[in-house]
Each structure stands twice: as structure tokens, then as C-alpha cells.
Amino acid sequence: MKTSALIDESGSLGHRRVLDFALRREAKVESPEVRVVVQSTIDESADRAAFRAGLLAKPATSSPKFFYDPQGSALFGAICELDEYYPTRTEARIFERHRAEIASVLPGGSQWVDLGCGDGLKARGWLEPAHARRYVGVDIAEPWLRSALASLVATLSKMPPSRSIDVVGVVADFTRPFDLHELLLEEPSMAPVFFYPGSSIGNFVGDDARAFLASVRDHIERHPASLPGKLMIGIDLVKDRSTLRAAYDDAVGVTAAFNRNVLRVANRLLDADFDLSAFEHRAIFNETHGRIEMQLVSLRPQTVHIGEAVRRFEQGEVMVTEYSHKYTVDGFATLLESAGFAGGDRLRCWRDERDWFGVFVAEPA
Predict the structure, then answer these.
(1) What angle do CA 61, 318, 284 make, to 5 degrees?
(2) Where along the chain do its domains lie?
(3) Which of 97, 138, 227, 363 is the right S-S partner for 107, CB 3.0 to 4.6 Å?
(4) CA torsion angle 113 118 119 120 (round to 10)
């Protein structure tokens, strides 16, 4: 999106297209009822407590989940259209160019497990090429999940009966220990294909990425289908530092507004009084940990009230709001192997022409 009118200096929305995106996010789709299994729901009280504790800690931190109120979601939609933000379109290009080849290494007649499915649009282009017979959408936001599944059912209803696909939703926080075994075993002949695009695994910290991958491997390994299940996952690769920094600190300032919006969320949810103009957005590449760090830097000494608590920020003090880990192909292959996936010829990777992004297909060792 090439416009300097997108935001004003305080980070407020200033462009109709962004508002339209927010309205689409809130839209509900009318269609027949879809089966949804509720495993866990958002614990708003616990989330607020964790949010408050992170802001009061030293150094202060905030979980990326607090970016995504309607305004933050709209801003992120705008980020995905920026010239500097390459991940979304680069992954989409890999999907389009290599769809048939990738689909050929996936088990036919599978149940497609879409982790963090959102609107489910990325998965839709794979269901027919992969000959999926079942779609399992997994997301923590139940109203949005139900709406997305209803839209998918409406689309699938136009397919011939011979290609009918069962659709089911699971309300769960898959970033924590989760269990889909019972649901997947409803279809013992359908091998599961776990789909996790967008390099979202980059937000996992420390051993959490390995634990998540090991859980997916366990689900695949324990399924009795004659064909082995697979994991299909998108990974942002290490590249030159200027490209990485620009993707998280664009010239127009959309990412800066997105980052500062977390303070507005804190003001609303925690009865805080953050002054957005008193914090500067910064994105750095941490060489030691191989990750982009999104930060908010205090521009002056200041006192912030967070409910009844008081937090003093010194000039230059940093609040970390997001990590986004970047991998080499060999480095991510090693991570997969440490989580119990096969390496060597049994691990496949497709990359774009600049080696900026990779799509891996893995199976248990």
C-alpha cells in the first residue's frame, strides 16, 4: 500500500482501505451450522494478568497476541501489502509456482489440519490439489473460526459430490500443549497433513518451537493411516540485514503504528495511561539469537499508571513486543530432526528465486 496518508503521527487510522479491512475482519457469514469442538477458550482474565505482569517487569515485555484488536488487525493487513514486507507474497509465490509438485508428496485423501487458520484462505488453494477429504480448522477465536468455516462450507458446496470435504473446527490454543488425537482418529484411514504457513513459528521462543514441532510429529506418528502424515510449514529465511529491518520498520511508518498500538490496547484493557507519542518503534536483528526484535523505546523519563500500579520508564528503556526468528535451511532442518522428523531425502524444501522464504514438507523419522 503506497500512501503516506495511512496513519497520522499518533498511529491512528487514516485511510479508508484500512478501515474496510477491519470491517471485513468483523463480518459474519450466514450459512448452515458447522461442527465446532471447543477444547479451550480465551481466558481473558488470565491474559490481562499476564499482559499486566509483562509490562510491569524489567525489562518490560508484551505478547504479540495483544497486537490484534480490530485496529491492530487492520494495520497488519496494511503491512502485508507494503513493498517492504515480503513474507506473505513470497510464500504465496512459492505456493503458486510449486503447488503441483508439493501436492504430489502429500498423502492423498488426507485430513487437512489448518493451525491458526484465521480466514482459512491459504488452505483453500490446497484442498483440491492435495485431494483432501476433511478440513480441520484450528483457532483460539471461536466467533471468527465459526465465520471462516461457514464461508468455507459455502465455497465447497459448489464442488461436485464426488469431491465433498467434511469441515470441522477446533477451538484451541495450539501454541500450548494440545491434543487432537481423538478428533483425528474419527477418520483412521485419512492421514493428517498439518499446515502451518506464514512463518508464524518464528514467534516461538527458546525450546517452545521444538516442543510445538514434537507435538505435531506425535500426532502424525500415532495416526494409524497406511500413508504417513506430513507437516507443511512456511519459514522465513535469514537474509541481508537491510531487507529484514525494512520489513519490520517500513518507510511509511505502518509497522511503527502497529507496534505502538499495543500501548493503546494496554490503556483500554488494563486502565493504563501510556502516551503513544512518548515511545519510538525500533526493529533490530539480534545476531546471537537469529531473530528480529520489535521494540518500543521510551523517549524520555516517564511514569505510567497500569491500573493501580506505577511503572517508571527511563529514557532509552526498551520494551520488547515481538520476536521473529529467522532460519537457514540447514538450521531449520536440524530443528525438525531434533523434534523427531526425518532429515535427508525425506525432508523437502521449496524456496523462492532469492532464497528469502522456504516451504518445508516433513514426516516423522
Answers:
(1) 95
(2) 34-85+241-325, 87-239+329-362
(3) 227
(4) -20
Distance separating alpha carbons of residues 208 and 201, to the nearest angstrom? 9
Residue 286, C-alpha cell as written in the block: 539480534
Cell of 48: 490481562
CA 188 to chain centre: 28
The cell for 50 is 499476564
- Give percent of the chain with pLDDT exceeding 90: 78
DSSP state of 185: T
Cα separation values, 86 from 124, 186, 365, Å: 21, 39, 32
> In the 8-state DSSP scheme, what is residue 259?
H
CA distance 91 to 359: 7
pLDDT at 14: 32
Q: How is domain 87-239+329-362 classified at the CATH fold level? A: Rossmann fold (3.40.50)
What values do phi and psi take at 319, rounded to 5?
Answer: -110, 125
Nine-digit cell string for 31: 450459512
- The pLDDT tens digits of the residues spanning 2-16 come to 333 333 333 333 333
Q: What angle do CA 77, 33, 42 make, to 5 degrees?
A: 50
Task: Specify the pairing of strand 357-362 against strand 230-236.
Answer: antiparallel
For 49-100, how does the pLDDT look when each residue is reduced to its tens digit (9 = 90+)? 999 999 999 999 999 989 988 899 899 999 999 999 999 999 999 999 999 9
β-strands 60-61, 318-325 pairing:
parallel
**DSSP type of residue 172:** -
Name the β-bridge partners of 294.
283, 322
